Structure prediction request, 91 residues.
Amino acid sequence: MTLVFIALLALSWTGLSLAVLAMLMKRLGPPRQAAWRAFGLSLAVNTMGAAYATPGEPLSAVILILLCHALLLPPLLLAARREGQREGQRP
Prediction:
């Protein structure tokens, strides 16, 4: 039960951080580029943080972070595409 709770917590934290980063990065460029920049930045920071935070098993923590990011990338890109279409840009 604890493992499920940790996985859900990691997924929700990843989703929140990706959404906030993409919103902030949208000021620097189009929504699709903002989504990719947010994804890369979040992946790098969260992976390094997870690896250093778990001295016993860093590989399992990194795999959890990678899996959470992989699950959230398609909805993030879909939202960026819809945002781009709403702003009148090419998809």
